[in-house]
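Re: weekly structure request thread

Next one in the queue (236 aa):
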Amino acid sequence: MESTRKIILDTETTGFSAEDDRIVEIGCIEVDGFASTGRTFHVYINPEREVQAEAARVHGLTTERLAREKPFRAIMDSFLEFIGDAMLVAHNASFDMGFINAELLRNGRPAIALDRAIDTLIMAREKLPSLSRHNLDSLCNYYGIDNSNRDLHGALLDARLLTEVYIELLGGREVDFLKVMSGEVEDMGAGIAGAAAPVIEREFRAAREFAVPAEELAAHRAFVEKVGDKAVWNKI
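Done, posted below.
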């Protein structure tokens, strides 16, 4: 059976060129099917070079702040172990994959095949062509996802938001419901944030039948006659 495990991924960088710039933060959320497993991977990275001012304004990570963090080569193995062979989901995936593969190649590791990447930007443009913008904030607003804490970009925060957006792009909770009804899954399990769906146990009771008193039936018939042909009860 094909694995349903996926990694929702986001990166922050020193600039916008995968060849010349470096990754400064990686955030990952593990999902299985339509639910978060609760497992995450999050690191800040010392890029061993200056962070461009324009990039720092986006994510708030300065050269001085990152100087105490480990370089990519020191976190590379733990990152690769976390993602395993799962599909990788990213918004504008070519950007994130370009930076990740550039870092891997610099450190003597093979690049990750691009066919392992799912691009939610492409998904959003195809599914929501009427939207004027398809960035993460616009998609959160469209789907009613709370992004009020997103004053600055952050890899783990953005990965969490993207997890919810990705589920919505797949059909959202409607897909979960249809899977349950079709018997494909036994229950909806954990929600997007990993919280277990509530299970309410009630004692089964057979439906009760209540006889309508004759005087109430007579009063209802009189009311329907008074309303006339427009009465909805005449159509039932």
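The longest strand covers residues 23-32. The radius of gyration is 26 Å.
Next request, please.
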